[in-house]
Amino acid sequence: MLERRESLRIAPSTVTHILHRHDLIGPAASAAAKPWKRFEHEQPNSLWQMDFKGHFGMGARRCHPLTVLDDPSRYHVALVACANEQRGTVQAALQRVFAQYGLPQRINTGNGPPWGTGGQEALSALAV
């Protein structure tokens, strides 16, 4: 039996292989599993993906890179070096991006600040 440790990481494929080997996942369950489907859009500006890519030190300050990617074309609409991940900073950056490229039909974001912390209200607040 495995001892529970936070540092222990087992690949999902390994777990699946073990379950199959012990006949705990049968052919019916395998056949019923649905294949993964990518949320893909066909036309530019139909879906943008936005997220912060962590942060790193720059002397006494930190840089928070904000990326904006057009999903269908894979074109990097923006890479903005932000001083923080606060609403006002993101609003200002996105206003410049929207002025240059227009508004996308949909936006997919990460779930951290500033868009995910307060649920739907957090993302809506960016529009104010």
In short:
The protein is an alpha+beta fold. It has helices at residues 12-21, 27-32, 87-101, 120-126; strands at 48-52, 56-58, 61-70, 75-82, 107-109. Helix content is 30%, strand content 23%.
Using only CA atoms, what is the Rg?
Answer: 20 Å
The SSE string, one letter per element, is HHEEEEHEH
Instruction: Find the CATH topology of the domain at 48-126.
Output: Nucleotidyltransferase, domain 5
Task: Look at the structure and name the CATH superfamily of the domain at 48-126.
Answer: Ribonuclease H-like superfamily/Ribonuclease H
- Strand-residue proportion: 15-25%
- The CATH class of the domain at 48-126 is identified as Alpha Beta
Structure write-up:
The chain has 128 residues and is α+β, with helices and mostly antiparallel strands. It has a domain at 48-126: Ribonuclease H-like superfamily/Ribonuclease H (Nucleotidyltransferase, domain 5, 2-Layer Sandwich), CATH 3.30.420.10. The chain has helices spanning 12-21, 27-32, 87-101, 120-126, and strands spanning 48-52, 56-58, 61-70, 75-82, 107-109. Strands 1, 2, 3, 4 and 5 form a 5-stranded mixed sheet that branches. A hairpin with a 4-residue loop joins strand 3 (61-70) and strand 4.
